[in-house]
Amino acid sequence: MERKRFGKMLLPAICLLLISQMGCTDSGAGGEERKDFYNILMQDGADPWVYKHTDGYYYFTKTTGVDVTVWKSASLTGVDAAPRRVIPTGGHGIWAPELHYIHGAWYIYYAMDDGDNVNHRMYVMENTSADPTQGVWKQKGQITDSTNRWAIDGTVLPLDDQLYFIWSGWEGDVNVSQNLYIARMSNPWTIDSERVEIARPTYAWETNHSPHVNEGPQVAVRNGTINLVYSASGSWTNDYCLGLITADVTSDLLNPASWQKRAEPIFASGNGLYGPGHHSFTTSPDGTEDWIVYHVAKYKDAGWNREVRAQSFTWNEDNTPNLGVPADPNLPLALPSGEASRSRYEAEKGMFGAGVSVLANTSSSGGKYAGRFEQEESYAEFSIQAAAGEYILLARTANGSAAGEVSYVELSVNSESSVTLSVLPKGWDNWGLSTARIQLKDGENKLRFARDRGKFGLDFFDLLPLRALQQ
């Protein structure tokens, strides 16, 4: 079920009446201003693509399987709560769409088939509107070289005045190995050279599952070095990871000898997160930091059940990315530089009913959270003072349902309007993110998180006014 959305950070004037089961405690206190977040952007999704445009907005898309959906967000960490546009394609198996701005127009590249994976091919559509969530998307058709083989995960490398298309494909008509290919483009929807293989799975960490996989190519150019970071090993396994091949911008990119592959992965499982891969690169709002957005399995052995995370990275002296390891999901990260701070409200400071109580948990913020939302009337209520306006709410939630069922939360504002939040099942110590947009009035507001179906835990929620993002 879809999560509804909210607006960005609360101003310092906002205060929270901290109420416990015993009654009012410190009613003059407010939400704590924070400039950090916990490393999760979406509690569900794979193959994330983020592009920060010159208009200051982040445009996000991911695999939905049935269409291409584009989110438009004023912040990187608030993308899940952003407005979006759904673009029908008329096909099946829509994988890994990417949104590019080329020569003054928008292009979406995506893989599609007719219901049979053997027939996956790359397609492209165009939009000449200034805003890709507006205007008309025109199908430009299939983009392919003369072999017309199986193809997915296409991306564009613009270099000087030349465009190159890079994708993952089969050498023949049988799924033995996914290789990386490059070809020259005459325009954003046409390949005008033969494809050239620049990488295939060869190392043990690329060939430890069958079929062998090199896919999800993404390009970052720094000081004359082309970094092609790709995903390797089985995407359905804990071993999925990122590898690197490089080339010099002055080299002949259609010559396989121009590309050198690193012998070891540059980003792999760690800190209790498994199978990081199929990423994209972007920057912080002020442009001073580089960020990687990637998917991981929701838990060990989760297969294709994945979520979207993000973290900053640095560069090595040889102009290659230093991605480190997946950030610990239970330690807060600094917000992307230039993002507005938010006000945080710890769930254990709410007023509870119908069995809800404060529980201890070392993975939760401050070591406590509100749990036992199990009875039909279970709820946690918070009273806050706010300026009138639209807000984004981001709640850190958990669902340890033994049956693996989604839980639903009815979030009401001032006993009037309500939205439904979903909490996906990952385990009680494995926190996710439920988001919404709400309208708050000037003065006191009451927010109630009530059980709808299933069981859930609430660690805290952040509030951010949209106006803080739009300034």
Summarize the structure.
This protein is 1% helix and 51% strand. With 471 residues, it is mainly beta.
Protein traits:
Jelly Rolls, globular, Tachylectin-2, Chain A, mainly beta, six-stranded antiparallel β-sheet, 2 domains, nine-stranded mixed β-sheet, about 475 residues, disordered N terminus
Please describe the topology of this protein.
Blueprint: E1 15-17, E2 19-20, E3 23-24, E4 32-34, E5 36-37, E6 49-52, E7 58-61, E8 68-73, E9 84-87, E10 92-102, E11 105-113, E12 121-127, E13 138-142, E14 151-159, E15 162-170, E16 177-187, E17 190-191, E18 196-199, E19 212-222, E20 225-232, E21 241-248, E22 260-261, E23 274-283, E24 290-297, E25 306-315, E26 321-322, E27 333-334, E28 342-346, E29 351-353, E30 357-360, E31 368-371, E32 379-386, E33 389-399, E34 407-413, E35 418-423, E36 427-440, E37 443-453, E38 457-465, H1 466-470
Parallel strand pairs: 16-19
Antiparallel strand pairs: 1-32, 2-3, 4-28, 5-27, 6-7, 7-8, 8-9, 10-11, 11-12, 12-13, 14-15, 15-16, 16-17, 16-18, 19-20, 20-21, 21-22, 23-24, 24-25, 25-26, 28-38, 29-32, 30-31, 32-37, 33-36, 33-38, 34-35, 34-37
Structure, described:
By secondary structure, the protein is mainly β. The chain folds into two domains: 15-35 and 341-470, Jelly Rolls; 37-334, Tachylectin-2, Chain A (5 Propeller), CATH 2.115.10.20. The protein has one helix and 38 strands. The chain has one helix spanning 466-470; strands at residues 15-17, 19-20, 23-24, 32-34, 36-37, 49-52, 58-61, 68-73, 84-87, 92-102, 105-113, 121-127, 138-142, 151-159, 162-170, 177-187, 190-191, 196-199, 212-222, 225-232, 241-248, 260-261, 274-283, 290-297, 306-315, 321-322, 333-334, 342-346, 351-353, 357-360, 368-371, 379-386, 389-399, 407-413, 418-423, 427-440, 443-453, 457-465. β24 (290-297) and β25 (306-315) form a beta hairpin. The protein is globular. The protein starts with 14 loop residues before the first strand and ends with a helix.
